[in-house]
Amino acid sequence: MMKFLVGFCILAVVAPTVFGDLKCSLGAPELPTEWIDLRGDCVTAMRNQIQKEIDASYQYLAMGAYFSRDTVNRPGFAEMFFKSAKEERDHGSKLIEYLSMRGHLTEGVTDLIRTPAIQKDEWASGADALEDALKLETQVTKSIRKLIQTCEKKPNFYHLVDYLTGVYLEEQLHGQRELAGKLSTLKKLMTNHGALGEFLFDKDL
Predict the structure, then answer these.
(1) Which of 4, 32, 147, 200 is spaced 20 to 30 A from 158 at the CA atom?
(2) Using CA atoms, how far apart are residues 57 and 3, in angstroms rounded to an integer?
């Protein structure tokens, strides 16, 4: 073991002088930039939307983790919220891929995603969590609509607007309706059966 440590120390001292600092010396090539036509407020709004999707993902992770607790033990709710977390993360990833396709990730991306903030980590009931989830989806939907309004002002952004309207907005609207339906069903069950209604609803999930 001692021989290994001595050999490692010698290698650590000698390697930089023999091999240099071993850093890649290739610079960024000069490329035409005329094809990069997504600019201005639209790009800023896109970056903000990515952050909102990541924030929503982390909030859903917090929900899933809460209902996974042994003292709460609602596996149906937990699975649903973990699935929602993955969907929101995928949304953020797709927007990042779109920015890359339009030539906006050729430079540093350290400011693209900030540390997400969890607004809440405990819920009084499953219905309380579903209400928060519906509010969260509504906020994301409003943000997407605002993004569309910002980007549709320029004629060369029509592809992005079509993408957001046809894929993201429709999925958001379906998601809102699904959550509203689940919340309605759960509240009816809890009105008639109390805590047993939530237990049965979780099993159905």
Answers:
(1) 32
(2) 49
Banded pLDDT at 103 (limits 50, 70, 90):
confident
**CA–CA separation, 56 vs 89, rounded Å?**
8
Centroid of chain to Cα 100: 17
- The answer on pLDDT for 61 being more than 90 is yes
Contacts 24+ apart (CB under 8 A), 167-175: 168/91, 168/144, 169/141, 169/144, 169/145, 172/137, 172/140, 172/141, 172/144, 173/141, 175/137
Using alpha carbons, select from 64, 109, 83 the residue that is nearest to residue 178.
83
CA 156 to chain centroid, in Å, comes to 27
Task: Please give the Cα distance from 189 to 152 (Å, whole number).
Answer: 44
Please report how many Cα atoms fall inside a 13 Å half-sphere around the Cα of residue 190, on the Cβ side: 15
Indicate the pLDDT class of residue 94, thresholds 50, 70 and 90: very high
pTM beyond 0.85: no
Q: What integer pLDDT is reported at residue 158 of this predicted model?
A: 84
Is the C-alpha dihedral spanning 54, 60, 64, 69 positive or negative?
Answer: positive
Contact of 66 with 121, CB cutoff 8 Å: yes
- Residue 99, φ and ψ in degrees, nearest 5: -60, -40
Element spanning 176, H or E = helix 170-193
